[in-house]
Every structure is written in structure tokens, then in C-alpha cells.
Specification:
The protein is mainly alpha-helical and about 325 residues long. It has 12 helices and no strands. It is globular, with a radius of gyration of 24 Å. About 30% of the residues are buried.
Amino acid sequence: MGGRYTFVLRRFAFAIPLIVIVVLLVFLILKITPGDPARLVVGLRASTAELDAARAQLGLDQPAVVQFLHYLGNVVRGDFGFSFKSQQPVADIIAQRLPVTLWLLGFGALFSVMISVTVATLAARTPDGVFDHLARGAGLVLFAMPSFWTGIILILLVALPTGWFPVGGFGYTPIEHLRSIVLPAITLAVSMAPLQVRSFRASLLEVRSSEYITAARTLGVRPLRVMTRFVLRNAAPPTVAVLALNIGYMLFGAVVIETTFALPGIGEGIVLASQQRDIPLIQGYTILFAVAVMLVYLIADVAEAILDPRVKVDS
């Protein structure tokens, strides 16, 4: 158990310098972006005195190293500055949009796991059978289909004819949130599922052909217990890694899907901030995404080490 705690702490320690590098790269966005940030704050008609005052307020009159250390200290405290457009704290804007994206990612991951486990299990029961070939063919088509196209098809074929789900927005009550998030989450799950189905199917076939599975069946262990106790558990670790990789891509796929379904989440916020050249807001979103991706991969490493005893956490 001590080795696992050390493993987790080592992973966290390794993530710290990566986060600092990300913050540095995000800070450089302000330096390489054309235009004067102070001019974006005070406007085009501001006087020279007002422009100098804005530069001093933003700390742009200090050396770049001092500016970065000041920005890094603020980020550690959760202070990402103020939006150029709305003059609201960036942290508050992110906090307002984050729940919508969490709903989307959570249900998207849930639906993708449900689809992947079901399809892969049925496909692995009869390898190279009719369902197996259909599943792999459909997976190739869905993997190649853009997310926005899948979302538009669901809107045209499901939302508009039935009226069960809204075509945009997030609503104001938990029930409205749930109705609003179903189709976007399915869109996200459909884009994730093909890789997970292929990975889980391959793992199931490998585990089912193992000697200990044959021994368990020879000893008369019930098929359901063999599947749940031995096959699924031992086939899960590689799929966990694929799921973590997909969740990393989901964060960026959320930009397209939230725009398609007009969800007021982080993805839509990035698009609006980019259009308005709101640099502090873009910086805050970028840091959030980077930290979220590293956190997901960290959780995946720990989960894989727990699920698979063959993973040596002491090395």
C-alpha cells in the first residue's frame, strides 16, 4: 500500500513542473499576440496618459520575468485576472460556465462506457461473426464522422421530430439540464466509442483465451461469474487508458459540440473569447484545460495500477 501512495505522490510531483511550463506558455500568449493589451482595455480613443496608466495597472511596464512571476503567483491563488470585455474576474466567468461542461463530459463518458462495454462484449462473444463485422464497420464510419455533423443529424432526426430534447440551451432546472445534455452527450459518446470498442474487444478476446479462464471453466465456475469476476476485470486496464486519452480529446471536442448545441459551457466561452480577443479569459480557459488533461491522465495511471496488479508502482 505504501508503494501505491508513493506512486500517486510521485505522479503529482511530476505534474507540478508541467503545470508551471503550461502557465509559462500561456503567459507568452500575451507577449506574442499582435496589438497592445492596454489598448484593448482603454479603447482606441484613449489618451497617452490613460494608456500609460492602463499599462501600469496591468504590470506591462515591468520586466517580463517580474510579470511572469507575478502572474504565476496569481494563478496559484486562483486569480486569472479580469476579462477585457466584461471586466469581471476570469475565475468567476469560468465558474459560471464550468458546470455545463462537467455535465457534458460526465454524461458523455458514461454513455461512451455503456456503449463500448455492450458492443464490445457482444462482438467478442462471436469473433468474426455478423455482429462483430457490423460493429467494426459502424465504428469506422462513426470515427470518421465530424462531431458537429453527428450533432446536426441528431437534431434533425431526434430533437425536431419528437420534441423530447431541446435543440439548444441548457435550461434552468435539473430536469431541463438533463434533457438539454442528452443529445450533446450522445454526440460526444459516439465520437469516443469506436476506439474504446476496439480496445475492449481486443482485451476481452485476449483474456478469454488465457489459461486461467480455461481452468475456471474446467472447475465448473458459472459463466456469469467467469465473465464478471475474471474476464471484465482483467480486460479493463487497457480500456481505462484509452478512456483517459479520449477524455482528453473530449475536452477539445466540447468546443465544437457546445457551439453546435448552443450550450453555455467552457467550449462556447473559448470561441467567444477568441472572437473578442479577450486574452485573460483565453489564458484562464487554456490553463484549466491543461490542468484538467493532466489530472485525467493522473487518475487513469492510478486506476490502472489499482486494477492491474502487474503494473509495478514501485519502479
